[in-house]
Amino acid sequence: MLSTEDDILRAAEGWRREGRAVALATVIETWGSAPRPVGSHLVIDGDSRFLGSVSGGCVEGEVITEALDVIEDGRPRTLEFGVADETAWRAGLSCGGRIRVFVERID
Domain XdhC- CoxI spans what residues (predicted)? Predict the structure, then answer.
């Protein structure tokens, strides 16, 4: 069962209360076939546990890796994944599109 956005945000808050280091990844822009809408979240703790999704599994591994760096150094990041322009759609690529994800540490 997929978690709701409220479940994900409650988990982030609960993990912080437990003293875990936490980062929150949020979809801030999409174009094309991005499987998650703007505002979707992925919460990650310092032990690589996570809840939620920013791409339906396409880029979560990379986002989690970056989130662990954000937890460590405290510097937020904006990540971008996907094609550079509309040519992917003209060529009929099934995985075309782009997603931008903002990752921040939750203190």
Answer: 15-82
Angle 76-81-84 (CA atoms, 0-180°, nearest 5)?
125
Answer for the pair 64, 48: CB distance below 8 angstroms, yes or no. yes
Cα separation, 90 vs 87, whole angstroms: 5
* Across 84-92, average pLDDT: 49
Identify the DSSP state of 24: E
Q: Where are the domains of the chain?
A: 5-106
**Rounded Cα gap, residues 107 and 74, in angstroms:** 9
| Segments of the chain assigned E as strands | 22-32, 41-45, 50-52, 77-82, 97-106
SS3 100: strand
Q: How far, in Å, CA of 79 to CA of 6, rounded? A: 23
Alpha-carbon distance of 107 to 3, in angstroms, equals: 22
Rounded to two decimals, the pTM is: 0.85
Query: What amino acid is encoded at 49 in this protein?
Result: R
